[in-house]
Amino acid sequence: MNGDSTGPGPPDGRIILIMDGDCALCSWGARTIARHDRRDVFRIATVQSAFGQARLIEQGLDPADPDSWLLLDGETALTGSDAVIAAGRLLSGPWPVLAALGAIIPRPVREPLYRFMARNRIAWFGRGDLCALPDESLRAKLIER
């Protein structure tokens, strides 16, 4: 964890993922990423954190929008299904294959499906606290709680 900095990114230059810290689906996703990030390339922040909100605003995104899922890799910023696919490609296990299958779906079809799921994720999966008692692998990736 890198404290309460709202600066541009973690000092280690890792890929930053910003997701909803109050969503059970996003919490599951963050834990899955922490377990399958064998090369230790990701750092994770929540949209509720000052750091996450600052990064979303810098990219012209609304931190209150449920669609806001952001991947920052140097000068590259990806949102929505593009961010999920890019993250999946860098994980171990089945995730690169699933990401490749997801990328086959044309973006004009894939993105509305992603947005539909994002808007309904709390109703379908409930609330969860990403930062509540995170396991050691996730705690090591959190930028701030």
Q: How would you characterize the overall build of this protein?
A:
The longest helix has 19 residues, at 107-125. It is built from 6 helices and 4 strands; from the N terminus they run βαβαββαααα. Helix 3 runs antiparallel to helix 4 (95-104). The model is unreliable at 1-9 (pLDDT under 50). Helix content is 45%, strand content 12%. The protein is of the alpha+beta class.
Largest sheet: 4 strands, mixed
| Strand tally | 4
Helix proportion of residues, in percent? 40-55%
Order of helices and strands: EHEHEEHHHH
Provide the low-confidence segments as ranges: 1-9
Strand order of the largest sheet: 2-1-3-4
General form = globular
Give the DSSP E fraction (strand runs of 2 or more residues): 5-15%
Radius of gyration: 14 Å
End-to-end distance: 8 Å
Tell me, rounded to a whole number, the average pLDDT: 76
**Structural class from helices and strands?**
alpha+beta
Helix tally?
A: 6
